[in-house]
Design goal:
With 341 residues, the chain is α+β, with helices and mostly antiparallel strands. The protein has 11 helices and 16 strands. The strands form 2 sheets. Strands 1, 2, 3, 4, 5, 6, 7 and 8 form an 8-stranded antiparallel sheet that branches. Strands 9-10-11-12-13-14-16-15 form an 8-stranded mixed sheet, with helices on both faces. The longest helix has 15 residues.
Protein backbone atom coordinates (compact mmCIF):
# COMPACT_ATOMS: atom_id res chain seq x y z
CA UNK A 1 0.00 0.00 0.00
CA UNK A 2 1.42 3.37 -1.04
CA UNK A 3 0.30 5.21 2.10
CA UNK A 4 1.33 2.80 4.83
CA UNK A 5 0.03 5.04 7.61
CA UNK A 6 -3.50 4.55 6.30
CA UNK A 7 -3.27 0.77 6.17
CA UNK A 8 -5.40 -1.23 8.61
CA UNK A 9 -3.28 -4.13 9.88
CA UNK A 10 -5.08 -5.28 13.02
CA UNK A 11 -7.07 -8.44 12.35
CA UNK A 12 -9.76 -7.31 14.81
CA UNK A 13 -10.35 -4.13 12.79
CA UNK A 14 -10.57 -6.05 9.51
CA UNK A 15 -13.06 -8.46 11.09
CA UNK A 16 -15.12 -5.55 12.38
CA UNK A 17 -15.41 -4.07 8.89
CA UNK A 18 -16.34 -7.42 7.34
CA UNK A 19 -18.88 -8.17 10.07
CA UNK A 20 -20.58 -4.77 10.35
CA UNK A 21 -20.91 -3.45 6.81
CA UNK A 22 -23.91 -3.60 4.50
CA UNK A 23 -22.78 -3.92 0.86
CA UNK A 24 -20.10 -6.07 -0.76
CA UNK A 25 -19.01 -5.24 -4.31
CA UNK A 26 -17.65 -8.16 -6.35
CA UNK A 27 -15.47 -7.55 -9.40
CA UNK A 28 -14.93 -10.28 -11.99
CA UNK A 29 -13.58 -10.53 -15.55
CA UNK A 30 -15.43 -12.14 -18.45
CA UNK A 31 -14.01 -14.27 -21.26
CA UNK A 32 -13.33 -11.15 -23.35
CA UNK A 33 -11.22 -9.69 -20.54
CA UNK A 34 -13.86 -7.06 -19.78
CA UNK A 35 -14.40 -6.24 -16.08
CA UNK A 36 -17.83 -6.56 -14.47
CA UNK A 37 -18.76 -5.45 -10.97
CA UNK A 38 -21.89 -6.20 -8.93
CA UNK A 39 -23.03 -4.84 -5.52
CA UNK A 40 -24.49 -7.48 -3.19
CA UNK A 41 -26.06 -7.94 0.18
CA UNK A 42 -23.91 -10.51 1.94
CA UNK A 43 -23.13 -12.47 5.05
CA UNK A 44 -19.71 -13.00 6.59
CA UNK A 45 -18.42 -15.80 8.80
CA UNK A 46 -15.05 -17.49 9.38
CA UNK A 47 -13.18 -15.99 6.40
CA UNK A 48 -16.03 -16.67 3.95
CA UNK A 49 -18.41 -14.21 2.29
CA UNK A 50 -21.81 -15.60 1.33
CA UNK A 51 -24.02 -14.13 -1.42
CA UNK A 52 -27.27 -15.36 -2.90
CA UNK A 53 -28.41 -14.85 -6.49
CA UNK A 54 -30.52 -16.38 -9.23
CA UNK A 55 -29.37 -19.58 -10.93
CA UNK A 56 -28.72 -17.78 -14.21
CA UNK A 57 -27.36 -14.43 -15.32
CA UNK A 58 -24.26 -12.71 -16.56
CA UNK A 59 -22.39 -13.02 -13.26
CA UNK A 60 -23.06 -16.76 -13.04
CA UNK A 61 -21.82 -17.26 -16.61
CA UNK A 62 -18.63 -15.33 -15.83
CA UNK A 63 -17.96 -17.18 -12.57
CA UNK A 64 -18.39 -20.58 -14.21
CA UNK A 65 -15.62 -19.64 -16.61
CA UNK A 66 -13.39 -17.67 -14.19
CA UNK A 67 -14.09 -17.74 -10.44
CA UNK A 68 -11.23 -15.42 -9.42
CA UNK A 69 -12.67 -12.22 -7.98
CA UNK A 70 -11.80 -9.02 -6.18
CA UNK A 71 -14.16 -7.55 -3.60
CA UNK A 72 -14.59 -4.25 -1.79
CA UNK A 73 -16.51 -3.45 1.40
CA UNK A 74 -16.68 -0.11 3.23
CA UNK A 75 -17.80 0.21 6.78
CA UNK A 76 -18.05 3.98 6.55
CA UNK A 77 -17.81 6.49 3.71
CA UNK A 78 -18.78 10.14 4.13
CA UNK A 79 -17.84 13.48 2.61
CA UNK A 80 -16.75 16.27 4.94
CA UNK A 81 -17.57 19.64 3.42
CA UNK A 82 -15.67 22.86 3.98
CA UNK A 83 -15.83 26.56 3.07
CA UNK A 84 -13.36 26.25 0.19
CA UNK A 85 -13.23 23.45 -2.43
CA UNK A 86 -9.72 22.19 -1.72
CA UNK A 87 -10.49 21.84 1.98
CA UNK A 88 -13.16 19.19 1.40
CA UNK A 89 -12.20 15.70 2.50
CA UNK A 90 -13.47 12.15 2.80
CA UNK A 91 -13.93 10.01 5.89
CA UNK A 92 -13.84 6.28 5.24
CA UNK A 93 -12.80 2.83 6.35
CA UNK A 94 -12.81 -0.10 3.93
CA UNK A 95 -11.29 -3.41 2.86
CA UNK A 96 -10.29 -4.82 -0.52
CA UNK A 97 -9.68 -8.52 -0.93
CA UNK A 98 -9.16 -11.36 -3.39
CA UNK A 99 -10.44 -14.89 -3.52
CA UNK A 100 -12.31 -17.55 -5.43
CA UNK A 101 -16.06 -18.07 -5.60
CA UNK A 102 -17.61 -21.51 -5.36
CA UNK A 103 -21.20 -21.89 -6.61
CA UNK A 104 -23.25 -23.85 -4.07
CA UNK A 105 -26.37 -25.79 -5.08
CA UNK A 106 -26.66 -28.33 -2.23
CA UNK A 107 -29.86 -27.65 -0.27
CA UNK A 108 -28.62 -27.78 3.36
CA UNK A 109 -25.51 -25.74 2.60
CA UNK A 110 -27.62 -23.10 0.87
CA UNK A 111 -29.88 -22.96 3.91
CA UNK A 112 -26.91 -22.42 6.25
CA UNK A 113 -25.57 -19.69 3.98
CA UNK A 114 -28.92 -17.90 3.95
CA UNK A 115 -29.00 -18.03 7.76
CA UNK A 116 -25.54 -16.40 7.84
CA UNK A 117 -26.76 -13.65 5.50
CA UNK A 118 -29.90 -13.05 7.57
CA UNK A 119 -27.97 -12.99 10.86
CA UNK A 120 -25.49 -10.55 9.31
CA UNK A 121 -28.35 -8.04 9.00
CA UNK A 122 -29.72 -8.64 12.49
CA UNK A 123 -32.22 -11.50 12.14
CA UNK A 124 -32.51 -13.70 15.25
CA UNK A 125 -32.68 -17.42 15.87
CA UNK A 126 -33.28 -20.21 13.39
CA UNK A 127 -34.62 -19.27 9.97
CA UNK A 128 -37.69 -21.01 8.57
CA UNK A 129 -36.98 -20.88 4.84
CA UNK A 130 -39.45 -22.36 2.40
CA UNK A 131 -38.00 -25.09 0.21
CA UNK A 132 -39.39 -23.54 -2.95
CA UNK A 133 -37.44 -20.34 -2.31
CA UNK A 134 -34.17 -22.11 -1.53
CA UNK A 135 -34.48 -24.11 -4.74
CA UNK A 136 -34.67 -20.93 -6.82
CA UNK A 137 -31.29 -19.53 -5.74
CA UNK A 138 -27.59 -20.22 -6.02
CA UNK A 139 -25.16 -19.38 -3.23
CA UNK A 140 -21.87 -17.77 -4.11
CA UNK A 141 -19.34 -18.76 -1.44
CA UNK A 142 -16.26 -16.55 -1.54
CA UNK A 143 -13.16 -17.79 0.27
CA UNK A 144 -10.95 -14.84 1.20
CA UNK A 145 -7.35 -15.52 0.16
CA UNK A 146 -5.95 -12.03 0.66
CA UNK A 147 -7.27 -8.86 2.25
CA UNK A 148 -6.03 -5.34 2.97
CA UNK A 149 -7.71 -2.54 4.88
CA UNK A 150 -7.46 1.20 4.54
CA UNK A 151 -8.82 4.22 6.34
CA UNK A 152 -8.75 7.94 5.63
CA UNK A 153 -5.92 9.98 7.07
CA UNK A 154 -8.38 11.82 9.28
CA UNK A 155 -9.98 8.63 10.67
CA UNK A 156 -8.05 8.44 13.95
CA UNK A 157 -8.27 12.19 14.45
CA UNK A 158 -12.04 12.17 13.99
CA UNK A 159 -12.49 9.09 16.15
CA UNK A 160 -10.34 10.61 18.88
CA UNK A 161 -12.22 13.92 18.69
CA UNK A 162 -15.45 11.92 18.98
CA UNK A 163 -14.33 10.26 22.20
CA UNK A 164 -15.14 11.73 25.59
CA UNK A 165 -13.75 9.92 28.62
CA UNK A 166 -14.99 11.81 31.67
CA UNK A 167 -14.52 11.66 35.39
CA UNK A 168 -15.93 13.10 38.59
CA UNK A 169 -14.66 13.03 42.15
CA UNK A 170 -15.66 9.38 42.57
CA UNK A 171 -16.44 8.08 39.09
CA UNK A 172 -15.04 7.33 35.66
CA UNK A 173 -17.43 7.76 32.72
CA UNK A 174 -15.98 5.70 29.87
CA UNK A 175 -16.87 4.74 26.31
CA UNK A 176 -18.68 1.40 26.06
CA UNK A 177 -17.07 -1.58 24.32
CA UNK A 178 -17.97 -5.23 23.72
CA UNK A 179 -16.36 -6.26 27.01
CA UNK A 180 -19.25 -4.47 28.75
CA UNK A 181 -21.96 -6.66 27.18
CA UNK A 182 -22.59 -8.90 30.20
CA UNK A 183 -22.70 -6.00 32.65
CA UNK A 184 -25.11 -4.03 30.47
CA UNK A 185 -27.32 -7.11 30.09
CA UNK A 186 -27.30 -7.58 33.86
CA UNK A 187 -28.19 -3.91 34.42
CA UNK A 188 -31.12 -3.97 31.99
CA UNK A 189 -32.39 -7.22 33.53
CA UNK A 190 -32.93 -5.70 36.99
CA UNK A 191 -36.66 -5.05 37.64
CA UNK A 192 -35.97 -1.83 39.58
CA UNK A 193 -34.00 -0.43 36.62
CA UNK A 194 -36.79 -1.46 34.25
CA UNK A 195 -39.50 0.29 36.31
CA UNK A 196 -39.21 3.55 34.34
CA UNK A 197 -37.21 2.23 31.37
CA UNK A 198 -38.83 2.13 27.90
CA UNK A 199 -36.39 -0.57 26.72
CA UNK A 200 -37.98 -3.29 28.81
CA UNK A 201 -36.15 -6.28 30.28
CA UNK A 202 -34.22 -8.04 27.48
CA UNK A 203 -35.51 -11.52 26.70
CA UNK A 204 -31.95 -12.76 26.02
CA UNK A 205 -28.35 -11.65 25.55
CA UNK A 206 -28.91 -11.29 21.79
CA UNK A 207 -31.31 -8.43 22.42
CA UNK A 208 -28.68 -6.69 24.53
CA UNK A 209 -26.11 -7.29 21.78
CA UNK A 210 -28.25 -5.19 19.45
CA UNK A 211 -28.25 -2.36 21.97
CA UNK A 212 -24.49 -2.52 22.48
CA UNK A 213 -23.90 -2.73 18.72
CA UNK A 214 -25.89 0.46 18.13
CA UNK A 215 -23.89 2.23 20.86
CA UNK A 216 -20.54 1.12 19.38
CA UNK A 217 -21.62 1.87 15.80
CA UNK A 218 -22.44 5.43 16.87
CA UNK A 219 -18.85 5.90 18.02
CA UNK A 220 -17.61 6.02 14.42
CA UNK A 221 -20.34 8.29 13.07
CA UNK A 222 -19.36 11.77 11.92
CA UNK A 223 -20.88 13.96 13.11
CA UNK A 224 -21.71 11.79 16.06
CA UNK A 225 -25.39 11.72 17.07
CA UNK A 226 -25.15 9.93 20.40
CA UNK A 227 -22.73 9.40 23.25
CA UNK A 228 -23.36 6.59 25.71
CA UNK A 229 -21.00 5.59 28.48
CA UNK A 230 -20.52 3.11 31.29
CA UNK A 231 -20.18 4.46 34.83
CA UNK A 232 -17.34 2.97 36.88
CA UNK A 233 -16.30 3.51 40.49
CA UNK A 234 -12.81 4.98 40.69
CA UNK A 235 -12.02 3.18 43.93
CA UNK A 236 -12.90 -0.35 42.84
CA UNK A 237 -13.34 -0.30 39.05
CA UNK A 238 -16.88 -1.69 39.43
CA UNK A 239 -19.43 -1.13 36.65
CA UNK A 240 -22.38 0.60 38.32
CA UNK A 241 -24.47 1.97 35.46
CA UNK A 242 -24.81 3.83 32.17
CA UNK A 243 -25.44 7.36 30.99
CA UNK A 244 -25.68 9.28 27.75
CA UNK A 245 -25.95 12.56 25.89
CA UNK A 246 -27.70 13.10 22.54
CA UNK A 247 -26.87 16.43 20.80
CA UNK A 248 -29.39 17.77 18.30
CA UNK A 249 -26.68 18.73 15.75
CA UNK A 250 -28.68 21.70 14.51
CA UNK A 251 -29.14 25.41 15.10
CA UNK A 252 -31.24 24.80 18.21
CA UNK A 253 -28.15 23.51 20.08
CA UNK A 254 -30.05 21.12 22.31
CA UNK A 255 -28.81 18.05 24.13
CA UNK A 256 -30.72 15.35 26.01
CA UNK A 257 -29.14 13.42 28.88
CA UNK A 258 -29.99 10.18 30.67
CA UNK A 259 -28.53 8.00 33.44
CA UNK A 260 -29.34 4.63 34.99
CA UNK A 261 -27.64 2.95 37.94
CA UNK A 262 -27.65 -0.48 39.49
CA UNK A 263 -29.94 -0.23 42.56
CA UNK A 264 -27.13 -1.58 44.74
CA UNK A 265 -25.51 1.86 44.34
CA UNK A 266 -28.58 4.06 44.76
CA UNK A 267 -28.61 6.59 47.58
CA UNK A 268 -24.94 7.56 47.33
CA UNK A 269 -25.32 10.66 45.14
CA UNK A 270 -23.72 9.00 42.12
CA UNK A 271 -26.60 9.81 39.75
CA UNK A 272 -26.49 13.48 40.71
CA UNK A 273 -22.71 13.46 40.20
CA UNK A 274 -23.16 11.99 36.73
CA UNK A 275 -25.99 14.33 35.71
CA UNK A 276 -24.02 17.41 36.75
CA UNK A 277 -21.00 16.20 34.78
CA UNK A 278 -23.12 15.61 31.66
CA UNK A 279 -24.64 19.07 31.93
CA UNK A 280 -21.17 20.57 32.21
CA UNK A 281 -20.04 18.56 29.18
CA UNK A 282 -23.01 19.80 27.19
CA UNK A 283 -22.34 23.45 27.87
CA UNK A 284 -18.53 23.53 27.95
CA UNK A 285 -17.57 21.01 25.27
CA UNK A 286 -20.62 20.80 23.00
CA UNK A 287 -21.44 24.51 23.35
CA UNK A 288 -25.11 23.70 23.76
CA UNK A 289 -27.75 26.32 24.44
CA UNK A 290 -29.98 23.98 26.42
CA UNK A 291 -29.66 20.58 28.14
CA UNK A 292 -32.84 18.55 28.56
CA UNK A 293 -34.04 15.39 30.27
CA UNK A 294 -37.29 13.45 30.39
CA UNK A 295 -38.60 11.61 33.42
CA UNK A 296 -41.69 9.49 34.06
CA UNK A 297 -43.98 11.50 36.30
CA UNK A 298 -43.94 9.02 39.20
CA UNK A 299 -40.14 8.65 39.20
CA UNK A 300 -39.62 10.75 42.33
CA UNK A 301 -35.94 9.84 42.78
CA UNK A 302 -34.96 10.99 39.31
CA UNK A 303 -37.06 14.16 39.61
CA UNK A 304 -35.12 15.10 42.75
CA UNK A 305 -31.82 14.46 40.95
CA UNK A 306 -32.70 16.72 38.02
CA UNK A 307 -33.85 19.49 40.34
CA UNK A 308 -30.63 19.21 42.39
CA UNK A 309 -28.76 19.83 39.13
CA UNK A 310 -30.62 23.10 38.57
CA UNK A 311 -33.01 21.79 35.93
CA UNK A 312 -36.58 23.05 35.96
CA UNK A 313 -39.80 21.38 34.90
CA UNK A 314 -40.98 22.94 31.63
CA UNK A 315 -43.97 20.81 30.80
CA UNK A 316 -45.85 17.55 30.67
CA UNK A 317 -46.08 15.19 27.70
CA UNK A 318 -49.07 12.93 28.18
CA UNK A 319 -49.01 9.20 27.41
CA UNK A 320 -45.69 9.25 25.55
CA UNK A 321 -43.61 6.56 27.31
CA UNK A 322 -44.30 2.91 26.39
CA UNK A 323 -43.51 1.05 29.62
CA UNK A 324 -44.53 -2.60 30.09
CA UNK A 325 -47.51 -2.33 27.78
CA UNK A 326 -48.83 0.95 29.15
CA UNK A 327 -48.48 4.56 28.02
CA UNK A 328 -47.03 6.76 30.77
CA UNK A 329 -46.78 10.53 31.17
CA UNK A 330 -43.41 12.28 30.99
CA UNK A 331 -42.15 15.47 32.66
CA UNK A 332 -39.83 17.59 30.53
CA UNK A 333 -36.92 19.12 32.45
CA UNK A 334 -34.27 21.52 31.12
CA UNK A 335 -31.57 24.04 31.94
CA UNK A 336 -30.25 26.76 29.61
CA UNK A 337 -26.68 27.99 29.46
CA UNK A 338 -27.40 31.30 31.22
CA UNK A 339 -28.93 29.50 34.17
CA UNK A 340 -25.97 27.11 34.38
CA UNK A 341 -23.42 29.93 34.35
Amino acid sequence: MRRAKQEIIAKEALEEILSNSIVCRIAMVDENNIPYIVPYNYGYKDNYIYIHSAHVGKKIDILKNNNNVCFEIEQKADIISADIPCAWSAYYRSVIGYGKIELIEEFEEKKKALEIIMHHYGAKGDMAFEEIHINTITIQKLKIDKITGKQSRNWNRIICSNQFELDTDRLYIKEINWNDLDKIHELHSIPEVDEFNTLGIPKDIEETKDIVKSIIDAQIEYPRKSYQWKIVLKETGEFIGMCGLFPSLDKFKLGEIYYKLNPAYWGNGYATEVAKRLIKLGFEDFKLHKVEAGVETSNAKSIRILEKCGMTREGLRKKILPIRGQWKDNYHYAIVEDEWK
